[in-house]
Amino acid sequence: MNTPNVEGGPRTPARRPYALVRDLARSLARPSSDTAPLLSGASAPWQRVLPYVAAVALVASLLPTTVAVLGDGHDVGGGVAGMLATAQTAPLLLAVARPLQAWWIAAPAHLAGAVVCLLSSDSTSAWPWTPPGVIGYLALLTALSLRERARTLTAVWLTTGAAGFGLDLVAPGRSGASTSVLVFVLGGVLLLLGGALRERGEARRRLTEQVGISEAERARRTLLEERTRIARELHDVVAHHMSVITVRADSAPYRIAGLPEEALEEFTAIGASARESLTEMRRLLGVLRSEDNGGERTPQPGVDRLFPLVDAVSRAGVPTTLSFEGAQVRGLPPAVDLSAYRIVQEALANVVRHAPGARALVTVGLASRGPAGERELRIEVVNDAAGAPGEPLEPRAEGTGHGLVGMRERVRLLGGTLQTGPTPEGGFRVAAVLPLAAHPGTDGAGGADGTEKGAGEGAGREDVSTS
Questions:
Q1: 32 neighbors 148 (Cβ within 8 angstroms)
Q2: Where do transmembrane segments lie in this chain (predicted)?
Q3: 281: pLDDT confidence band, cut at 50, 70 and 90?
Q4: What is the H or E stretch that residue 380 is in?
């Protein structure tokens, strides 16, 4: 014995069909929230206008035809025939944007037309659907299938079949001329095909959205990876200076005789603060460093390491020339020194990947700008077109290049500018300007502590070519 259906309890078998009918009926009262005209998202203008042209053509042809069929074939009066024909065909114009609302107007009109025809004559003409009524109703179902959900389409199809079956039961003598089965079958086929097309379009739209989201996430992940990499490298630079501060503060009492007690306490506090800062930086670096990266064991490179880099690139098949312009590049701030090397490294790596066989020119120099003569480091890497035809060593992926992302982040960190783009000769150019004014204590001619840092064994050389 079935137990009463309480709130939250299992539903009895007797209530399941009722719930299904209720859900189908509710779906007929809930049209899709999308009210854009059919094909409004098409790229070609003629495709966006096509639904309106089809609707106007159907109404213009079916309206007078329906009036004639109702009047001549079923002896319906002219006024009544005109009102029924208008109610059956005019909703096709509304169906372009709101097909379910149009169905709510046209379906009762078709049902009323069948009743009027039944009462007006006992003609053996097609009934309960007239030929123009069949065409207009199937066109309406097609528009409906391209907009509404599957449950709504099922409810429309079952309602159409039930109405036709009920009319056939009322007038069994006209069953030989009945068009209910024809409309029921053809309508089901059109609803099924249209629904499948709509689902396919929805799937493609969702796939396009997912692709866009994936591209955005990939770009964001690339940016975060580059920022993490830059943070790890800058940690090494800053940690070196913090270590120097700690050593000098701790050794000051032994190097300088006769320091007062206040000075000794100040040096002790400075050393303790520096060691605490180093500890915090190492803790932060542990978060930034990936699990498979155990840490760097070599000093961070600078402009003095450009000559070995150029040699390595030339051995990789890209003849490269390194040129220094203006004053000798030495004593750069550590962040600028490291960023300059990484920018040249990434630019040459892109040449090796995407333009094998091309020649590259690297130009590095110090310059002054503005009335105050602010010093800045200028870097330019230019390559010509690929020297030999063939595919790049690595395919170019739009929007996912780590090299340009890293360059932009480094330049933005230092407050500089970066220009990238193709050259008229078919090559590519990368130009970066890194200001030195934001790094007090250095002027590009010597280190902060009065020492000089040469640009490797090639310091002072105006042009170095390797091929």
A1: yes
A2: 49-70, 76-96, 127-146, 153-171, 177-197
A3: confident
A4: strand 374-383
Residue 67's CB is within 10 A of a number of other CB atoms, namely 21
Kindly report the number of other CB atoms within 10 A of residue 357's CB atom: 16
Determine if the peptide bond prior to 128 is cis (ω within 30°): yes
SS3 29: coil
Cα separation, 253 vs 264, in Å, equals 7
Query: What are the sequence ranges of the domains in the chain?
Result: 15-178, 224-288, 303-388+395-466
pLDDT tens-digit readout, 57-79:
999 999 999 999 999 888 888 89
Query: Which among 3-17, 413-427, 432-446 has the top mean pLDDT?
Result: 413-427
Model confidence at 219, in pLDDT bands (50, 70, 90)?
confident
Contacts of 420 (CB under 8 A, 6+ apart): 404, 407, 428, 429, 430, 431
Q: What is the pLDDT of residue 10?
A: 52
121 near 77, Cβ under 8 Å?
Answer: no
Q: What is the mean pLDDT of residues 251-278?
A: 86
DSSP designation for 367 = E
Domain 303-388+395-466: give its CATH superfamily.
Answer: Histidine kinase-like ATPase, C-terminal domain (3.30.565.10)
Site of tokens 């030339």: 314
C-alpha–C-alpha distance, residues 112 and 133, integer Å = 12
Share of the chain above pLDDT 70, in %: 80
Q: What is the pLDDT of residue 398?
A: 41
> In the structure encoding, which two tokens stand for residue 370, read together?
């503005």
Closest by CA position to 382, among listed 319, 300, 301: 319
**Burial (Cβ within 10 Å: 0-12, 13-18, ≥19) of residue 323:** middle
Whether pTM exceeds 0.85: no
Q: Mind spelling out the 3-state secondary structure of 391-449?
A: CCCCCCCCCCCHHHHHHHHHHHHCCCEEEEEECCCCCEEEEEEEECCCCCCCCCCCCCC
SS3 463: strand
